[in-house]
Predict the structure of Mitochondrial cardiolipin hydrolase.
Amino acid sequence: MCEALAMGRGGAWVFMAGAALGVCLEALAEWLLRRRREVRVREVLFFPSRVTCVEGLLAAAREDGGKGLRLAPCLCSLPHEESELSRLLARLLSARRSLELCIFAFSCPQLSCAILLLQRRGVRVRVVTDADYMAVKGSQIGILRKAGIQVRHDQESGYMHHKFAIIDKRLLLTGSLNWTTQAIQHNRENVMIVEDAKYVKLFLEEFERLWEDYNPVNYIFFKEKEVPKETNNNPGTERKFNK
Amino acid sequence: MCEALAMGRGGAWVFMAGAALGVCLEALAEWLLRRRREVRVREVLFFPSRVTCVEGLLAAAREDGGKGLRLAPCLCSLPHEESELSRLLARLLSARRSLELCIFAFSCPQLSCAILLLQRRGVRVRVVTDADYMAVKGSQIGILRKAGIQVRHDQESGYMHHKFAIIDKRLLLTGSLNWTTQAIQHNRENVMIVEDAKYVKLFLEEFERLWEDYNPVNYIFFKEKEVPKETNNNPGTERKFNK
């Protein structure tokens, strides 16, 4: 009887040990899940950016093909420290396979330089932009096109006003920032950096929609002078080509 | 001996039951965590929006103080179905305590109407905007101010170009969309709807930074005529007041 009682107590201890093990496993699973969430990139860059030298960053990417980004020494008078622009550039230069860029206005030479580096590195770059803004003075779109990068643009009454990029179909950069020096150095702007499969999928689908909508086979070339978007206030006379 | 053996077997069973319970608890914890992640709002609205009637949505919010949003019957000729604008409005009208709005251009009457409804409902509304764009024809900023909503604006050389809103310090709406009828009905735009404490915190901090930077006690009123931003291409002559 005493022996049975002792075994009964032993059974209770075993039960408690099992339960404790279960709680530990549960805590471990929770910790792993939390860690998995934490390592996902969730960052926001707020502009204006301090004006810093990013030539070292670009030179390093140029030299080693982007295998490891490191700041090469530079002798110019600008501060050689991290800034919002350098962080944006570093994210862009991390691309290894693909870059989908959907940008309203693009005139920043440093960002253009980064895109050209990616193209030379063999990254598949595709650009969607706004027809009106790609023609303004300082636009980098012509430079990208000359380098062989595929660019498609709207032919609509409204603006192609997105400002997002998708890196390696994994990382989304999106926000209010047009890629212009004015916006980077003077405006209050934001760029969210999001590593989230759901958001990436939704923006990628939007990119592919635009890529098809703006297929050059659908472009219409006019002989007569068009009414510019800015002066067209009558919805009844809007240009509508692709829809 | 046989009795002890039986109790030993009993102990093993108890151990296995404990272990099984542990595994079940672990699975439950994982399921709960996954579910918690899933119920978080992660949505993107892509514009242009179909033109639909949103009067029912606004009328319902007006009548019941936003306790439950339902579509009231409306006899106008527009389609009475969900659209990107109606989804944006429904998110806005879900505010119960606070709304921080940081918007470059605001001329959409329906969105303005929603903000006024929130103000009447007792939601604390604060607006930050761009000085140049709040003065253009059709801007809703004056209407909001007349209703007693606190509005602050920049006095900088660059634009206050953000387009985000924070609802109840819980939900973030951000993207490329200015709150104008042109952008909503004609442009290619995006609005991300994000329920993520980290992003909300970062954008709220940016809002509070701007709210302090644009405190009216820091405004400077000039007697001589200012050079408008649009024609000021020389960085050396930029207006810099707050920094």
